[in-house]
Amino acid sequence: MPTTPRLFVSADLSAGRAVALDEEQSNYLLRVLRLGAGDEVRLFNGRDGEWNAALSAAGKKAEVTPVSQLRLQPPPASPALTLLFAPVKKDQTDLIVEKATELGAVRVVPVLTQRTQTRTVRLDRFRKIALEAAEQTERLDLPEIAEVATLDAALAALPPGTAVIFCDEAGDEAGAPWGGEAGRAGPMRAVLNGLAGRDAALLIGPEGGFTGEERAFLRGRASTWAVSLGPRILRAETAAIAAMALWQAVCGDWG
Fold first, then answer.
1. Residues in Cβ contact with 56 at an 8 Å cutoff, skipping those fewer than 6 apart
2. What is the mean pLDDT of residues 180-202?
3. How much is the pTM?
4. Cβ atoms of 189 and 246 closer than 8 Å
């Protein structure tokens, strides 16, 4: 049985109140899926839950009319997860945004660190990727995609009390490969066990990791914990996915 298509709309949703779709959504329903008047569509807007709707007009821009509410809008996620990440290459950065949406991040912030190589990003592209991921994964809201910020500014903008968890795979031994073993952070799961119930921001550095200056700043900052993701050095996009999954398993909505 084919799956009922699911779309995010910005309009308010209530029974009998027709919603005009944009041209891209209309083309998807009418020409790609070849739906017609009376066919079912599911709608959500991040405020009014999810609705079963019927295709009620099939012109260049289609209209759908909500019929019945399928799910109530849940309260905002608590504790809330923010992802701060240094942009990498295009495809890998797109993957991070997509998986952050799937893994329940409420806010995604591209961060400029000293070693960030990709310093220009397209927020409109990120928002489209997040929207499509939310449609496909039954999520009832969209994450906020924030403007690119410096590391200092991104941390300063976090709500008070947010636990900052940064993935730090380096040691403190100058000249040793990846800083040697001295000063390495503790396993992430062990650190998370003490942070249950707190809003959190996961910070993923760039290819090459954080500089010594950034590590010293982060390690000296209040409400900030350095963590390790194991004995292997992970690519940035792998680290982001692994860290979010661990947080959801220990502190989030997977328990």
1. 18, 37, 63, 64, 65
2. 85
3. 0.92
4. yes
